[in-house]
Amino acid sequence: MKFPGRRRHKHYFPVEEKDPLTNQINAESRLKRSYIVGIDQIVVDIEAKVDLAFLDEFGLRRGMSQVIDSETTNALYDRLKLNEMIDYEFAGGTIGNTMHNYSVLADDRSVLLGVMSENIKIGSYAYRFLCNTSSRVDLDYLQPVDGPIGRCFTLIDESGERTFAISAGLMNHLRPESIDKELIEDSSALVISAYLMRTQGAETMTDATMQAVKYANDAGVPVVLTLGTRFLIEQDPKWWAEFVQKHVDILAMNEEEGEAITGFEDPLLAADKALDWVDLVICTAGEKGMFMAGYVDESCQRETEYPLLPGAIADFNRYEFSRAMRKQDCDTPIKAYSHTAPFMGGPDSIKNTNGAGDCALAAVLHDISANEYHKLNVPNSAKHEHAAITYSSLAQISKYANRASYEVLVQHSPRLTRGLPEREDCLEQAYWEQ
């Protein structure tokens, strides 16, 4: 469990390098492991280049995200296969991507909850999902269903506009009784997305998600919500704000989603407003980089060694060297913010933006889980004199998240294919040493 890059201070979780006397006492004991749990609509992403006539043929509205029935799905897929128009087929889903990326970064266990086709044929959508998911992601808790999982077609026309066609299959049929209470209670975090609340009719995904959220809230396990899309939030921002305030501890969003739920276009102000509801905010803002906002007790605040930054909040990064804490654990809570520009200024050419935010969130979750891992194994460490929810400072986490998302931007897949290097040959060491 190690962050990438060479640092002036060893930036890993030194459980094995404890005091020699302590090592002798605990020589027989095994290290306790931390893990995170995510709930998702299990889906396969299919990307293809098409023309406008193709969209018209299947009644698809250009540039929109729309649900299609099984008959249209099969006809669409057969046509793409027949004409060899498919460029890529990847395991998808915003939480599925996050769990996979977390396990690749941490080289450790995560648990994915959802549904999976009971009968899987080689070459099928379900088969492709399993093949493209890290072996470190625990799929043993998936609920079997007699039917297909979800499929999401990303159709790119001549202008580069993306049109999404979604076939739900049985992806929204996760039942509340399939949620393992003990699994949730023992986890470091529960990760959900706004998409899970968009169900109808006999679909039970929302009920299952709320059951898991209740278990997490009752056990004090942090609930992490990623907003997913501004169009869903815009439909009822007041409802979402109330839901976040009541059930969510950590909020992940981009600047558009932040504006939809808070009303603030500026990502820093949106993050600041979200702190009225949650303890930690991650806001990705494209070429502007990444903003983080959280709470720290006045007695634990650490001032930055970087230049103070101007913005909608003056000198907002003053306490970015602080570790994030729950507001309720602070005697005198103060707000801390951090901003990091895109890694290396961003890639020369962006091959894919899908999944970059999911990868950034996975890096943040790695740090949160690492804090729990260290607390489980070295509970008396000075590191845990104060009840922080992160292992590292906001500034360092933000750098790590930017570095991780860079890897997704320079490849076609929304999922990491390998972990990050421990030493960056292409990068000035000063970036990690600061």
Name the descriptors.
434 residues; alpha/beta; UDP-N-acetylmuramoyl-L-alanine:D-glutamate ligase; 9-stranded mixed β-sheet; 5-stranded mixed β-sheet; ATP-binding; purine salvage; Guanosine-inosine kinase; nucleotide-binding; Ribokinase-like
Walk me through the topology.
Blueprint: H1 20-25, E1 36-39, E2 43-49, H2 52-57, E3 65-67, H3 70-82, E4 86-91, H4 94-106, E5 110-113, E6 115-117, H5 125-131, E7 137-138, E8 143-145, E9 150-156, E10 162-167, H6 181-185, E11 190-193, H7 205-219, E12 223-226, H8 230-234, H9 237-247, E13 250-254, H10 255-262, H11 267-274, E14 280-284, E15 290-297, E16 323-325, E17 333-340, H12 356-377, E18 388-393, H13 394-409, H14 430-433
Parallel strand pairs: 1-5, 1-11, 2-9, 3-10, 5-7, 6-8, 11-12, 12-13, 13-14
Antiparallel strand pairs: 2-4, 9-10, 14-15, 15-17, 16-18
Helix pairs in contact: 4-12, 10-11, 12-13
Summarize this, please?
ATP binds at residues 284-289, 357, 402. Belongs to the carbohydrate kinase PfkB family. With 434 residues, the protein is an alpha/beta fold.
Could you characterize what this model shows?
Pathway: Purine metabolism; IMP biosynthesis via salvage pathway; IMP from inosine: step 1/1; Purine metabolism; GMP biosynthesis via salvage pathway. GMP binds at residues 93-97, 198. The protein has 434 residues and is an alpha/beta fold. Helices cover 32% and strands 20% of the residues. It is built from 14 helices and 18 strands. The radius of gyration is 22 Å and the shape is globular. The protein starts with 19 loop residues before the first helix and ends with a helix. The model is unreliable at 1-12 (pLDDT under 50).
